[in-house]
Structure to design on (836 residues):
């Protein structure tokens, strides 16, 4: 089933209000395996509504329309829809009586413009509104359904699942197809590299749709299977996932709703390990991400943002001759930071970052984007050197992610040096 | 001028990603008094893009198209636009050379699929991308402009004002009206409170458009003036700004592109003051925001994320009897943290946070959202108690903002207790 979504309102076109209804409705339809053919927004103008409906129906079995059902003069959706399909308006006496009852029960004075909300195009099926005064309606036209509801988000969230979707199910013959999706999350390989690596995986021949969603600094790969049974879809997805894993295991850190900090937090908690962090260039972003996970106080003992050299010396005992010989941005400094923060906090693990986030502070030897990340466990200290591009904020984000990824690899028993 | 906006991407139609570009672009166009005729979203499908362009151009002088310009196989926008207007593709050698240079400068391996990003429909004007690899392009068709740029929000935010709008100005005859906008940024008052406070300011009578943009945890108020001369517009904006300041000065922290951390950083640097931060519930988010400002190492000496009680005792010398008598989330603890981090770091100022971010850890006395923030300058220590609602991440965000706001008010000589 292909469904188009049309949201109506001057406030949407001026950008004053961001349209949240369309995206929300799209998610409900996608979850049913119905395809959203187009999302459209137009002003409260008769010709704009007519043209949008005509275009939307040219590529859809049904249109869901929101907005413009209020009692005021700028609410013209009902009249515009009636006119677009050559229908007159009638007054639904049951709806009118209900409206008058609401007014009287709230002690409001009835004015005749409110009767507008009881007027519908001939042949409508009324869609009740359980949380507001404006009822919706649906009409059939050439085998298509046009369902119209108010644009108030709280009303949309009730009327779509309770009114519109059951109505579409009843009115439209549909092929029942089973859809299953799997999101694979990667870090450390550019989008083009991911694409290149899976080019020979034969995913298309498996009937798998592949979507790429860059989500800086991660890349998300969404595999979707549409089959005649759920079992068939699951089998295809499993096979596709295996083929992707065979090619990209080294860059994959999680699936679906997982985050690196969530995986790290769960693993530290499960194993009763504790962590202390000493950050320089990432400025607290690693502990910020870790403390987004509920219960992070179970494993995170402390974080130090040792931004000045003095703080590295005082809080971590970094010897001045290490600073002099190698500089604050160096492998020896990173190693010392990780070891010292672990030792002083008495935790199982110590993680550190030091680098040049820019825009100034770079040198030919250590240009902006030079980052050292170290991880100490009391037996061994691992250190990686990265050279990132991007500007200051994104360097911080990617360096924090690289630090969390190093921790994740360590906890999984993978090669920390990736 | 009527402009349509077409955003392309499967993720938009599935509802997986809410389209933020269309609304943002619409706001830019509305601020210029250009009318947005339609907002459209379709999948990465050749026929869908063709039909959407045809429909969009039927009611618009120009179409701004975003998305689908990446190097991977599912990025088909360029090819689809070329085909829709019967044009072949050519390779822009300058763009190709630039792409290869970027790859080599970052030590990335060049793969041929990247050449796709240098291919444009015949007759294109290339729109440079100052912050990414995918350039945009514009073509003319029957007196209409079709401008195509990538869908990455950070790139849209640069390429629309710097590339697309100047190009539309050049290519389309238009009525010139002078438009001036001023964004006033507030923290600490809900949208309805802001609305209420300015209700009697007579902004409408001044010919000023007022837009509300909640930007959690801030509220942004955008004043727009449209006049026949730039001078007239500037005069109106100044008067409107004064009226808003008279009513809301206490909540206003900045204007236009300013951020609290930027203002705080500039003021600390100008006065040669230094800062140390001890965070508990905010988990490093305050130092993360401060270190987003280039040159923050000039004033930020260190940050401590003292998450465990042990770390509060060891790193800040917090007496165990303070912990026992008042708890980690208390005014005495917050005061001690601010004073101790300042004293131990030898900085001018010390800032601290402690609180219950949730979802667990709350009690009837100190429910989730209880936060204490303290600021010490060696002479006096200020402490505020907040009770926020929201969930864990938003409690962290609003608490960090409240801490930065306290610092800002202190530096401006305003009452820290707001």
């Amino acid at each position: 089933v292909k469904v188009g979504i049309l949201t109506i309102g001057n406030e949407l076109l001026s950008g004053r209000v961001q349209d949240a209804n369309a995206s929300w409705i799209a998610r409900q339809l996608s979850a049913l395996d119905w395809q959203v053919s187009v999302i459209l927004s137009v002003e409260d103008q008769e010709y704009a509504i007519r043209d949008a409906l005509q275009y939307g129906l040219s590529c859809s079995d049904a249109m869901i329309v929101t907005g413009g059902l209020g009692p005021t003069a700028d609410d013209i959706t009902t009249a515009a829809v009636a006119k677009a399909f050559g229908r007159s308006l009638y007054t639904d006496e049951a709806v009118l009586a209900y409206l008058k009852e609401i007014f009287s029960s709230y002690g409001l004075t009835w004015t005749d413009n409110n009767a507008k909300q009881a007027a519908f195009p001939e042949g409508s099926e009324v869609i009740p509104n359980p949380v507001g005064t404006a009822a919706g309606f649906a009409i059939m036209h050439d085998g298509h359904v046009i369902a119209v509801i108010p644009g108030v988000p709280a009303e949309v969230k009730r009327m779509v699942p309770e009114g519109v979707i059951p109505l579409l199910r009843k009115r439209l013959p549909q092929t029942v197809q089973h859809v299953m999706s799997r999101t694979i999350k990667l870090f450390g390989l550019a989008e083009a590299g991911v694409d290149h690596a899976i080019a020979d995986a034969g995913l298309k021949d498996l009937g798998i749709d592949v979507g790429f969603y860059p989500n800086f600094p991660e890349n998300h790969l969404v595999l979707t299977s549409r089959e005649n049974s759920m079992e068939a879809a699951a089998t295809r997805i499993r096979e596709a996932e295996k083929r992707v894993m065979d090619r990209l295991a080294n860059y994959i850190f999680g699936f679906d709703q997982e985050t690196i900090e969530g995986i790290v937090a769960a693993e530290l908690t499960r194993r009763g390990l504790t962590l202390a962090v000493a950050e320089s260039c990432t400025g607290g972003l690693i502990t910020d991400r870790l403390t987004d996970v509920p219960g992070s106080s179970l494993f995170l003992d402390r974080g130090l943002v040792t931004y000045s050299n003095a703080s590295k010396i005082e809080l971590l005992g970094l010897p001045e001759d290490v600073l002099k010989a190698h500089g604050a941005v160096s492998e020896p400094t990173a190693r010392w930071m990780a070891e010292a923060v672990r030792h002083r906090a008495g935790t199982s693990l110590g993680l550190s970052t030091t680098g040049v986030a820019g825009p100034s502070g770079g040198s030919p030897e250590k240009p902006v984007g030079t980052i050292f990340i170290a991880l100490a466990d009391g037996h061994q200290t691992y250190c990686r050197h990265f050279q990132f591009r991007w500007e200051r904020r994104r360097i911080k984000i990617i360096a924090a992610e690289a630090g969390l990824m190093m921790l994740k690899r360590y906890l999984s028993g993978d090669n920390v040096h990736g």
Remarks:
- The radius of gyration of chain B is 26 Å.
- The mean pLDDT of chain B is 93.
- Residues 392-411 of chain B form the longest helix (20 residues).
- The longest strand of chain B covers residues 178-187.
